[in-house]
Amino acid sequence: MRAVDLTALARDKDALVLGSGMGRWEGDADWLRTVWEQTAVPLVLDADGLNMLASSADQGLWPVRTGPVILTPHPGEMSRLTGLSTAEVQRDRIELARSFAVDRGVVLVLKGSRTVIAAPDGRVYINRTGNPGMATGGAGDVLAGLIGDLLAQGFPPEQAAVLGVFLHGQAGDRAASVKREYALSASDIVQYL
């Protein structure tokens, strides 16, 4: 899809979730930058959307969006966004998330054990729900969609991120109590939402 097509489609939408299952193509970072700059609809970037952003040589210089943005990286994606090693990302997750959110004017959801949610004003939240069984293919896509759904319902970005992460983890905990952590799938998380 061309960026102009998506910007036209986004005009009357309540939220966009980009990246989950998208794949990559030549010029995709330029496409994303056009969407970034020419839409004001709240935006959730996950998976390949984050990889597109990270591959842009000037991503740190992109303007603050007129509409809110929520980034949902796991530590490997955060490593690509920052140029730090994954070990460096994990060393001080709270401060890294806080400084990135403040510097970029975004809400950052740094996934993992005790997911960290950082707001552009420097506030940080630590989630206590969830379990290791949720580290399964598609679970992050469910989270991005849930946060996008909350945005579309009118929740402010920071609240959508915090509530989305909490509910996602709680659903994973409910699923694990029935199915066991080692057998969890993304569809189990959806079922227990």
Q: What is the strand and helix layout of this fold?
A:
Elements: H1 3-10, E1 16-18, H2 28-38, E2 43-45, H3 48-55, E3 69-71, H4 75-82, H5 86-91, H6 93-104, E4 107-110, E5 116-118, E6 124-126, H7 139-152, H8 157-179, H9 186-191
Parallel strand pairs: 1-2, 2-3, 3-4
Antiparallel strand pairs: 4-5, 5-6
Could you explain how this protein is built, in words?
With 193 residues, this protein is of the alpha/beta class. Helices cover 50% and strands 10% of the residues. It has a 6-stranded mixed sheet, with helices on both faces. A hairpin with a 5-residue loop joins strand 4 and strand 5. The two termini are 31 Å apart.
Q: Which runs of at least 5 residues are low in confidence (pLDDT < 50)? A: none
Largest sheet: 6 strands, mixed
Based on Cα principal axes, name the global outline: globular
Helix content: 40-55%
Give the class from helix and strand content and strand pairing: alpha/beta
Number of strands: 6
Terminal CA distance reads 31 Å
β-strand amount: 5-15%
Rg (C-alpha, Å): 16 Å
Q: How large is the count of helical segments?
A: 9
Mean pLDDT: 94
Write out the strand line-up for the largest beta sheet, numbering strands in chain order: 1-2-3-4-5-6
Order of helices and strands: HEHEHEHHHEEEHHH
